[in-house]
Amino acid sequence: MLRTRAVDVSLWQAVLPPEVLRLPDELARVDALLDDPVFFAPFVPFFDPRVGRPSTPMEVYLRMMFLKFRYRLGYESLCREVGDSITWRRFCRIPLDGKVPHPTTLMKLTTRCGTAAVDGCNEALLAKAAQAKLLRTNRLRADTTVVPADVAYPTDSGLLAKAIRRIAATGRRIQAAGGATRTSVRDRSRAAGKRAHGIAAKLRMRSAQGKDEVHAVVKRITGELAQLAVRAADGAERLLSNARRALRRTQTKAQALAAVGVQDAAAGRRRGRLRRAVNDLTALLQATRQVAAQTRQRVAGVTPAGASRRVSLHERDARPIAKGRLGRPVEFGYKAQVLDNDDGVVLDHNVEQGNPPDAPQLAPAVERVKRRTGRKPRTVTADRGYGEKSVEDEPARGRGAPRRHPPQGQARQGPASRGTTAGVPQDDQVENRQRGPDQQPQTRLRLGPHPPGRHRRSPDLDRTGRPGAQPGQDRSPGRLTERSLGDQQVPVPDAARPQSPARDFFRSK
Fold first, then answer.
1. What letter would DSSP give residue 144?
2. Is residue 457 situated within a structural domain?
3. Of residues 359 and 7, which shows the higher confidence score?
């Protein structure tokens, strides 16, 4: 059952002095903003208004999630800090003698509502800002980035070995929940582990003569892993069919008991575990067969298409995306487009599967911004990824036409550069400019968590200033051999050779 408001002020809070109850300026402004009931509307479809246990008040959940993302806290750290702070309790509408929600409660609410509630809150916030005339839409910036999925670096052999281990573990879960207890399934995890270790041992060979041999052995072992994964999936199919039959029997028995007014809570929990295990095994077998098929294509010398390649067993929509970044030429996740204004306020964003082109996404994003704010942007700045003729032809269709400005120092190339700018309204422009190494990126927004084990590019890779002299460098003389004294060329002794700071700076000790 949905609850939107928390309880009233308790007696302990009423006797506290006003200085203790005063909120900081930032939290006071956010508190006044979140009092609007429009932010509770996105959560209504996920709860029954009358039936069920009362939920955590949505105003408490919204305020706690604001603190979580504002100060970059985990769920456990957030609950601990809110419980220890009178100010944060006051902001989250939790009385002093009240109980802070458990971290797992916040996790379940976030999982249950998902991105739909977040999008609804964002739409409500942008609508309030546009109504108050706080959004500036004269100039927009458009850029695409990769939202990395929480996956390890995918290899065919690693995915196959992991799939075989997970098939065996999920089969044990099904039997522990009471399904297909008399069906035997062979555990091939040990054989898969041996073959995966064999690939790692062969890859450690550094001799030039053994490169062809290593390549052939790796292909052979990878093909064996694919065959082993298919056999493990075929063996698990019989277990899955028997588990589904057992699940149907338990559901029929539960319905019969419910008809006579008898409820068995323990049997219901076992039935829920069995249902979840059956669903997990069904999705796992489908992913295993897909990984095995693309592995056989690669062994046969055919590169699988990146738009349909499976790179994870649990992230089925993650795809390989090549953005040409230093240190990470290929990333695995989703492609996101972000439109923000001069103030850094994100006016539109969308996440796409795979690596679609940038240019077709620009016009729909601008239309969404116009619909939200009620005003048409004058200039949209983007990089060369948006430089296509279709973007330049927008004025002819009456959608607020772009004018394309080529990057400085580069000639106009390609079909997008042949578009004319005559007759294009001056208030509708799209600037395609290439960012230099010493310029800041167009947006600082980072969507999603940073995957563990992946580090951002070091700022030392981009040296924007001229290197100066450093302490402790070698100050030995340069290598000049002679100098001109009038018309006579005489050798220059070492003691008389001039110092060369530029040469000495790059001389190692």
1. E
2. no
3. 359
> pLDDT tens digit string along 365-387?
999 999 988 888 888 888 888 88
Task: Compute the half-sphere exposure of residue 504: CA atoms within 13 Å on the CB side of its CA.
Answer: 17
Whether residue 440 lies inside any domain: the answer is no
- Listed in order, strand segments (DSSP E) in 20-172 are 139-148
Q: Which two tokens stand for residue 462?
A: 């981009």
Instruction: Round to whole Å and give the CA distance between 73 and 83.
Output: 14
Residue 405, domain extent: 319-432
Which DSSP string corresponds to 422-487? TT--TT-EEEE-PPPTTS--S-----SPPPTT--PPPGGG---SPP---TT---------EEEETT
- Res. 394: pLDDT tops 80: no
**DSSP class of residue 303?**
P
Instruction: Name which residue leads in pLDDT, 51 or 385.
Output: 385
Count of domains observed in the chain: 3
Nearest C-alpha neighbor of 242 from the set 175, 179, 176: 179
How far apart CA 165 and CA 79 sit, in angstroms, is: 36
Does 50 share its domain with 182?
A: no
Same domain, 179 and 277: yes
**DSSP string covering 98-121, please?**
S-PPPHHHHHHHHHHHHHHHHHHH
Q: How far apart are CA 30 and CA 24, in angstroms?
A: 10
